[in-house]
Design a protein that fits this description.
The chain is of the alpha/beta class. Helices cover 33% and strands 18% of the residues. It binds (2E)-2-methylbut-2-enedioic acid (MEZ). (2E)-2-methylbut-2-enedioic acid binds at residues 126-129, 327, 329-331, 462-463, 465.
Length: 526
């Protein structure tokens, strides 16, 4: 049936729905629901990793293949360095820019290498805000407790404490650099409420928060004249005879040449894995999110944690086809947008944690209460016009300009018509195990941002990712810089890779997958 006909139920039921309040799930209800419907619990999607530091652990098949995959580097590659530096930062998103800026401020010689252009990252696409406990009735302790609850109590307490405590100073740093967070009529920082949070705590720049932060960070990296290697994908790390990290091999994507960088310390900030399209899910992630840092750190011997849990953001676009998987910010639900099934009913408290909301949407669709598009996709409605009805005409346009534009290109006015959504692969909850300064078990190798794991437990709260990037980008940059000052450049070898390859052979594990993947296969011209 035509989408415009199907939409009518949302308009018809709006007044009745406005009178309803839906309770949040109790912990027991939450457990039952997600075990039944959340993609993390589909056993057939998982398998054991055959070798390496996480041998025997279970993860999704797509990630297991990348971890066990084959390096593109020949054993006899000439390792004469084209560049030498104190700190090599890999990744040009939020964590990478923050790490590079802080390492530079400490006086280190820094190179920032990035697979695509500076800023091409999930950070730039982050819409709904950054959680920081700055409101008078809020505190880092409350932020800590909310995050712990959201993460099923599986968060690393040390990492979490550092993140919430340093939030306010990070916000100050960003404001001093020029980030224009939204303010109220008195000029105070305006805070919004996100799913799973007990207090309004999101600092926003309408729904362009990541773009605004990255505008400023990118400018600062350029102002500070930090040397950049763009279109340079890291394809292998380098190690000395003791297994310490001593640099990296990059692939110059323009000239298809390997470029060797000698570095006293390396910080991996390569982001997430959305473009592995786990379980066939569409994704909100940018094209470079192929889990490169996970594979590289793993080959060096770094342990990964919580790599069996992923975040499927409740609201990925389902219609029109051109937008499939694109994020429809949680901000819309934070401001009161209802989720509505084919019968016109609400079915979950829209501000419950993301794992609960996504599981509920999947339940509605599996039990026949979803809405099917003409191309056979399924989803539920997000009642966006409700915001204008509740808060006055123009609210959607004023608060969600990015969303309005995203849909307007396809002739859809989201202030007049609801949008169809379904969970989209958004975030990797786990990653490389780190300490509070982003340090890994591998000497001189640091990891920051989505590539790291442990902080968010089994379900990240909205807005904690941008804060994570800034806090651990800063801490890893500062520490890597100090460490570089007291370290001499180690030998450049591929000793770790030889060992990894021999282990792979023992397990008969030639997966045929090149790792890192760099870009998803469907973006390449064959
Ligand atoms: O932290 C996020 O993932 C976020 C703010 C997303 C969004 O819905 O806007």
């Amino acid at each position: 049936m035509d989408i415009h006909v199907l939409q009518q139920i949302v308009h018809k039921t709006r007044d009745d729905r406005r009178k309803q309040t839906l309770p949040k799930c109790s912990p027991a209800e939450r457990d039952t629901l997600i075990k039944k419907y959340h993609p993390d619990f589909r056993e057939s999607a998982y398998r054991s990793i055959r070798f390496g530091p996480n041998a025997g652990d279970s993860t999704v098949r797509e990630l297991a293949s990348v971890l066990e995959g084959e390096s593109p580097i020949p054993d006899d590659l000439d390792l004469t360095p084209a560049h030498s530096t104190d700190v090599l930062v890999v990744g040009g998103g939020g964590a990478g820019c923050a790490a590079a800026l802080h390492a530079h401020t400490q006086g280190a010689k820094v190179i920032l290498a990035t697979k695509l252009r500076l800023g091409d990252s999930n950070s730039v696409m982050a819409q709904g805000g950054m959680q920081v406990a700055v409101a008078p009735d809020d505190s880092p302790v409350t932020h800590f407790l909310d995050t712990l609850k959201g993460g099923h109590m599986k968060n690393d307490h040390q990492l979490l404490k550092v993140m919430v405590d340093e939030g306010p100073s990070i916000a100050k740093w960003l404001i001093e650099l020029g980030v224009l967070f939204d303010r109220d009529a008195d000029g105070n920082l305006h805070v919004k409420k996100g799913g799973g949070s007990s207090k309004p705590r999101l600092l926003t720049c309408s729904d362009y928060t990541g773009l605004e932060i990255m505008r400023v960070l990118k400018d600062e990296v350029l102002n500070q004249k930090i040397p950049l290697l763009e279109f340079s994908a890291v394809v292998e790390l380098l190690s000395d005879e003791q297994g310490a990290c001593t640099g990296a091999v990059l692939m110059d994507l323009d000239n298809k040449r390997f470029v060797v960088v000698a570095a006293k310390t390396v910080i991996l900030c390569t982001g997430g894995i959305g473009r592995l399209h786990i379980q066939g899910f569409p994704t909100s992630n940018h094209y470079g999110a192929t889990g490169d840092g996970l594979a590289l750190a793993y080959r060096m011997g770094a342990k990964l944690v919580q790599i069996d849990t992923f975040q499927y953001h409740p609201s990925g676009a389902v219609y029109p086809e051109q937008l499939i998987g694109a994020l429809v910010t949680e901000g819309i639900r934070s401001e009161g947008g209802h989720l509505v099934n084919a019968k016109g009913d609400r079915f979950v408290n829209e501000l419950d944690t993301r794992d609960v909301v996504s599981s509920s949407i999947i339940r509605e669709c599996e039990e026949g209460r979803g809405i099917r598009t003409m191309s056979g996709r399924i989803g539920v409605w997000l009642d966006t016009p409700l915001l204008d009805v509740e808060q006055g005409e123009g609210t959607v346009a004023k608060h969600f300009p990015a969303m309005v534009r995203q849909y307007e290109r396809f002739g859809i006015d989201i202030s007049k018509d609801p949008v169809l959504i379904y969970p989209t692969l958004h975030y990797q909850n786990g990653g490389v195990q780190i300490g509070v300064n982003g340090e890994t078990k591998i000497q001189n190798l640091f990891v920051a941002g989505e590539t790291s794991g442990g902080l968010h437990g089994r379900n990240r709260l909205m807005g904690n990712s941008l804060l994570d990037l800034m806090v651990f980008g800063k801490r890893s940059g500062t520490t890597a810089s100090a460490q570089a000052a007291s370290t001499s450049q180690g030998n450049l070898t591929l000793g770790h890779l030889r060992k990894f390859r021999s282990e792979a052979r023992k397990h008969g594990a030639a997966s045929g997958v090149q790792s890192p993947m760099i870009l998803p296969a469907y973006t390449r011209k064959e």
